[in-house]
Specification:
Rossmann fold, 2 domains, 10 strands, about 45% helix, about 20% strand, globular, binds D-glutamic acid
Length: about 260
């Protein structure tokens, strides 16, 4: 049986890239809801319906686990998905807790980069309230990065001016830690790194999520049995277009360089 990864678009590949490092002997199904991307600029009700529709399709493919490799979808629908399906469902949320824990240095402030919807949701506010006792956490939505990624645009010459404009209201030299709270954002780590001081830590949740996945499978004695193959779907349709498959391959190569 396969392990399914789900995202609104190609962002989930950043989590799958990490999971394959620690779970190489698995086969994977990667589902991008490209008919409805971006989620981050839509309403909660719309995103909930998209996620439930995608999960319904994924469940019909007999999978042994589902990784919701999308912070936005996790914040909207993870509890409902867990109530609906018997296989393990692993979500991802902005890594605020590790960020606050490591930020003991001179520049203590933490900046969380995510989608507008993730930052608006109660789940994020509760997370920050629980952890941010010294009020060191700020946040910034970056919808443009999702749009760049879906067009396979990663050129720093285009990305950096966008980032600088989006962050123009903040003093970027104050932040010691930056959290990539949207799975599309690790694809831009090179450009993001350039707008912050050199020693700023940039963290994301893909390692934690992948470890959690491994742990859940181990508990059920379900690790292994595959050969590292990935089957790609776009909103319920299997991807056969060689050009698109080669774009996905390029994304993995990009992530090999960045991580
Ligand atoms: N990759 C997604 C996330 O982690 C959502 C991007 C979007 O569709 O706006 O939040």
């Amino acid at each position: 049986m396969k392990i399914a990864f789900f995202d609104s678009g190609i962002g989930g590949l950043t989590v799958l890239h990490q999971a394959r490092k620690i779970l190489p002997d698995e086969d994977y199904l990667f589902y991008a809801d490209t008919a409805h991307v971006p989620y981050g600029e839509k309403s909660k009700e719309e995103v909930r319906a998209f996620v439930l529709e995608a999960a319904d399709f994924i469940a019909s493919q007999s999978v042994k686990a589902l990784v919701v490799a999308c912070n936005t979808a996790t914040s909207i629908a993870i509890e409902e998905l867990r109530r609906t399906y018997a296989f393990p469902i692993i979500g991802i949320e902005p890594a605020v807790k590790p960020a606050v824990q490591v930020s003991t240095r001179k520049r203590r402030k933490v900046l969380v980069l995510a989608t507008e919807l993730t930052l608006k949701e109660a789940k994020f506010h509760h997370l920050v309230e629980r952890i941010d006792h010294d009020e060191i956490v700020d946040s910034l939505p970056l919808p443009g990065l999702v749009r760049f990624a879906e067009r396979f645009v990663f050129d720093p010459e285009q990305v950096i001016p966008y980032l600088k404009k989006a962050a123009s209201g903040l003093n970027l030299s104050e932040y010691g830690t930056v959290v990539l709270g949207c799975t599309h954002f690790p694809l831009f780590k090179d450009s993001i790194r350039q707008i912050f001081p050199e020693d700023t830590d940039i963290i994301d949740g893909s390692i934690g999520t992948s470890n959690h996945l491994r742990h859940q499978l181990a508990e059920r004695g379900e690790i292994g049995g595959g050969a590292g193959a990935i089957t790609f779907y776009r909103s319920g349709i299997a991807v056969a277009d060689p050009q698109l498959l080669s774009h996905y391959h390029d994304i993995f190569k990009r992530l090999d360089d960045l991580y």
